[in-house]
Amino acid sequence: MSDFDFLTGNWDIANRRRADFLDADSAWEDFPGVSTASRHFDGGANFDETVFPTKGTAGLTLRLYDPERGEWSLYRSSSSTGLLFPPVTGRFTDGTGVFHGDDTYHGKDVRARFTWSGITQDTARWEQAFSVDGGDTWLSNWVMDLTRH
Fold first, then answer.
1. Domain tally for the chain?
2. CA distance 117 to 94
3. pLDDT per residue as tens digits for the range 110-124
4. Is 67 helix (H, G, I), strand (E, B) or coil?
5. Which of 22, 35, 140, 142 has the most CB atoms lying inside 10 A of its own CB?
6. Residue 36 gets which letter from DSSP?
């Protein structure tokens, strides 16, 4: 239930994101971010805000643990849209968290996957990938390398 306790605190983030999330030939862009995360519900909830100063935007993520199903639901929003994206759900196994959900990107149905890995006291990695074929193939389109500050 306390899988996201590692995230509590302040982080510097090196972002690497494709210009087009569905185009394998799309150029990557690098930009900074800073994040603050907090723990709630005795570890059964986690909330963070990430600011992207060079982009003029921010994102929020609320993570909630369902003890009956033994899985997390992750809900995110962006200041650029003001909308709550559909959740991704999943769990941690052997220190890696994998979460899946259905979404749309530029009007196209996609399957989204978030992966948390490389978790230490002072580092972590988050990666987003999309699939347009129901999860048979995946295209990584955003990577965040977090370093505690």
1. 1
2. 10
3. 999 999 999 999 999
4. coil
5. 35
6. E
First-to-last CA distance in the chain? 25
- On whether the CB atoms of residues 51 and 36 are closer than 8 A, the answer is no
Tokens representing 4 are 């996201």
Instruction: Name residue, tokens 């990584």.
Output: 140
d(CA 36, CA 25): 33
pLDDT in tens, 25-51: 999 999 999 999 999 999 999 999 999
- 7 three-state secondary structure: helix
Predicted confidence band of residue 128 (pLDDT cuts 50, 70, 90): very high
Residue corresponding to tokens 């709550």: 84
- What is the domain-level CATH number for residue 93? 2.40.128.20
3 state DSSP class of 115: strand
